[in-house]
Amino acid sequence: MKKISLYILIFACFAQGAMGQDIEAIIKADPLKVTGGLSTTTTFYHAEGTIPSSRPPFYSVFNANLNLNFFGLVSAPFQFTYSPQQNDFSYPFQNLQPFNQMGISPKYKGYTAHIGYRSMHLSKYSFSGNRFMGGGFEVANKGSKWIYGGFYGRLAKAVPDTNIISRPGLTAYDRWGTGFKAKVGDKKSSIELIIFKAWDNKESINIPFAYAASTPQENLIIGTNIKKKISKQITFNLEYSYSILTRNTSAEEIVLQKHTYLNNLGGLYTPRESTEFNGAITSDITYKAKLFNLKFAYKRIGPEYISLGIPFMNNDVENYTANFGWRMLKKKINVNLSGGYEKNNLKSTKLEENRRVISGVNVTYAVSKKLNLIGTFSNYNTSVVKTTIQHLDSLNYFQITKNATLGGTYRMISEKSKDVHVIMINTSYQEASDIQGLGSLVYNGNLGYTLNKAKAGFSVSTLLNVNANSFTGLENIGFGPTVALSQSLLKKKMRTSLVFNQLNFTNDGQVVDQTSNVRLSVSYKLKKNHNLGLTGSFIKKENEARNQKYQEMTGTFNYTYNFSR
Question: What's the CA gap between 163 and 211, in Å, rounded?
Answer without folding.
Answer: 11
